[in-house]
């Protein structure tokens, strides 16, 4: 057993990161959250749990994921060295599996036979369905109707894995509504159901627990970077933020370092068609403090408290809030959050694909775009690590649609021109 | 402060006391503010208020995660019709001109934060609201809201559920100033087939040890027969989805309310 789970000074006993976080949920769930908290605390230091998780992360997930120097991308930007933390190499294609396997193991440990999950892009749903199949658990995944359309490939994968996908048509038919539905299911079946939450959101202890399970991303980055650069901390880390789990996974191991040893931590939020248009999912840039899904956070909501439907080209970032720990980082200056638009993300996706032969998830493409912009302002001896949260297979059909590739296009298509993208996205 | 503080609390307790003196459980109908439309709501509310000991008005909210499909759809419809937080409080203010029945508002915490906790309490008190029911606010989460409510003379009601441990029941019961709301089932709101008291008696026996306020039971009560069962053990019976369904189906809400109210007689 080599795996240890980190102990960070936050949240406090009440599940607060500064003024963010907490447990704003129906009373029915409070005992379940207490039970989960107790079980998690015990598991966290139990050698049996840790060695089983460690084995699965190595043998099943394919960890450690490589830290890869993107030389051609670096040359293109003409500034800082850009490394990619390749979470896209994880089995099932994204960082989500780290957390899902850990939570599913916890479910088994707690004697639960049924797990539920919410999903936007489908990556968390696929990861949950995979973990459930592996561990012999019944699995139900809630997914918005709009996301089911955008991510039909992942719906099929979940079904194949034996999970039931329940379509959610309330509200905006996307991730926030799928999350509401999963919470309602949990309120109803709390005694025998484990809720595998997919990001660093929700009531305490979820934001802390999911962070701890994802922190392996940053922990690996430390020793991998030491091997190639002779130092553990890069100058900057860039990661996309939906709820914020892949970002917190790579930030947290650095976030609690003294200020002078800390890299710049930058989260890219989905700015959709532009923060000023209102059609975005940038909760820090375009939201204000509110409560959703059990925790206090930056939230897109109007002056009467109704949630404003978010928009992003990527289903996984299409969420009106951002995890409470990120809110605290933002408020205290530990991390910065920058908006990246749909058009810019598409540009990032094509750039990485053309220059490195890596098709990133649309989510990760937000981080790629910003990292290139940032690298340009930095010096060649400086280092940026980008968390490449997932691979783009799930998005290719949607990207083809956005790039206006005709359905009957010949199999060998001419190079896709940039102006075509911009026209479609900005129209 | 105590003089103001007593207003909502006193009115709510008096309503339960009156019902008890008549050997009834208090009849507490619920209706979503602005449902079915802003124009149609007052007539529905009039019909319910005329029969209620206490009325619950829900502030329509986009993400009501403690509610089942019936109330959720009603909220969506009310919101689509332009009703929202301030508007619902305005509708209540109108009702106050015609009715003296205590009114409590059911609201999720986000609308309170968005309007601003102090401003929200001021508007609610000004509208003649007597108390608040906060389905996603466990009492140990946010003391500010309860304190502000007290400052503005509003009673607060928190919820217990069949899953609540004895320690939670004690904490919640002691935090309530209006009445204690016991959720009859592990689940969200909504009318249910096959009424059974299930875990309610045991939950109430536990709650009685700690509660210095009346105890109402809700979630899933949708007809006179269920109301009668609940009335045997509780001080009040809350009924919501049944009335929304009645409105939706074009039934006479007053008649449906009469039937269920009769069930509250012991
Ligand atoms: C590849 C990928 N990256 C990022 C995200 C965003 O989630 P988070 O911010 O929790 O990492 C998702 C969510 O589905 C995803 O699939």
TrEMBL record, chain A:
Residues bearing the modification N6-(pyridoxal phosphate)lysine: 96
* Reaction catalysis annotation: (1S,2R)-1-C-(indol-3-yl)glycerol 3-phosphate + L-serine = D-glyceraldehyde 3-phosphate + L-tryptophan + H2O
Pathway assigned to this chain's UniProt record:
Amino-acid biosynthesis; L-tryptophan biosynthesis; L-tryptophan from chorismate: step 5/5
Q: Which residues form the Tryptophan synthase beta chain-like PALP domain?
A: 62-390
Record keywords, A-Z: Amino-acid biosynthesis, Aromatic amino acid biosynthesis, Lyase, Pyridoxal phosphate, Tryptophan biosynthesis
Q: Name one GO molecular function term.
A: tryptophan synthase activity
Q: Which cofactor does it need?
A: pyridoxal 5'-phosphate
Q: Which SUPFAM superfamilies match?
A: Tryptophan synthase beta subunit-like PLP-dependent enzymes (SSF53686)
Top-level enzyme category = lyase
Task: Write out the GO cellular component annotations.
Answer: cytoplasm
Q: Could you tell me the EC number(s) of this protein?
A: 4.2.1.20
Coiled-coil ranges per UniProt: none
Record carries keyword Transmembrane helix: no
Q: Does the keyword Lyase apply?
A: yes
What does this protein's UniProt record list under function? The beta subunit is responsible for the synthesis of L-tryptophan from indole and L-serine.
The UniProt similarity line reads: Belongs to the TrpB family.
Q: How does it assemble?
A: Tetramer of two alpha and two beta chains.
For this entry, the protein name equals Tryptophan synthase beta chain
Recorded source organism is Deinococcus koreensis
Give the gene symbol: trpB
TrEMBL record, chain B:
- State the similarity comment: Belongs to the TrpA family.
Q: Recite the lineage of the species.
A: Bacteria, Thermotogati, Deinococcota, Deinococci, Deinococcales
The subunit structure is: Tetramer of two alpha and two beta chains.
Q: Tell me the keywords, alphabetical order.
A: Amino-acid biosynthesis, Aromatic amino acid biosynthesis, Lyase, Tryptophan biosynthesis
Question: What's one GO-annotated cellular component?
Answer: cytosol
* E.C. number(s) listed in UniProt: 4.2.1.20
At the top level, the lineage of the source is Bacteria
Q: Cite the GO molecular-function annotations of the record.
A: tryptophan synthase activity
What this protein is reported to do is described as: The alpha subunit is responsible for the aldol cleavage of indoleglycerol phosphate to indole and glyceraldehyde 3-phosphate.
Q: Which residues form the active site?
A: 56 (proton acceptor), 67 (proton acceptor)
List the protein's name: Tryptophan synthase alpha chain
Tell me yes or no: is Amino-acid biosynthesis among this UniProt entry's keywords: yes
